[in-house]
Design brief:
132 residues; mainly alpha; 0% strand; globular
């Protein structure tokens, strides 16, 4: 298996919707919010936004296909940066802080280090079949 194995299809089918559901549900299961209620609600709001982003992304599981996949990845990376910074800004401690730092590492690793480069032809619609 190549080092950069997270293709657009893998991201669409195995990451987007499951991660959105985890972001929505995990704060309740883990009882986040001991250091600040924001620790719980930041994840829930991000999960809802992640679900909506998946729905409007131009990839295999996108329903509306408005947002290009490359832009989706940059939004994911921005969320990773927010998750790194949030514990400092909102004074999260303990599990509240570690939850966001672990998620940040996973998001940045997945969307940058492990992300397979897109085929340029896919980005521009070159070489794809169209109905005649």
């Amino acid at each position: 298996m190549p080092f950069r194995f997270v293709t657009k299809a893998i991201h669409a089918y195995l990451i987007d919707y499951p991660v959105a559901i985890v972001l929505i549900g995990a704060p309740f299961v883990l009882e986040l919010g001991h250091s600040s209620p924001i620790a719980m609600w930041l994840s829930v709001v991000t999960g809802v936004a992640a679900f909506l982003l998946a729905v409007i992304t131009n990839h295999e599981t996108g329903l509306i296909k408005l947002v290009p996949y490359w832009m989706h990845l940059w939004v994911d990376r921005a969320v990773g940066l927010v998750f790194i910074i949030a514990p400092f800004v909102f004074n999260f401690t303990g599990l509240d802080a570690w939850y966001y730092w672990v998620l940040a590492a996973a998001v940045i690793l997945t969307t940058s280090v492990l992300n397979a480069p897109e085929d340029v032809r896919d980005q521009h619609g070159i070489g794809t079949r169209t109905a005649v």
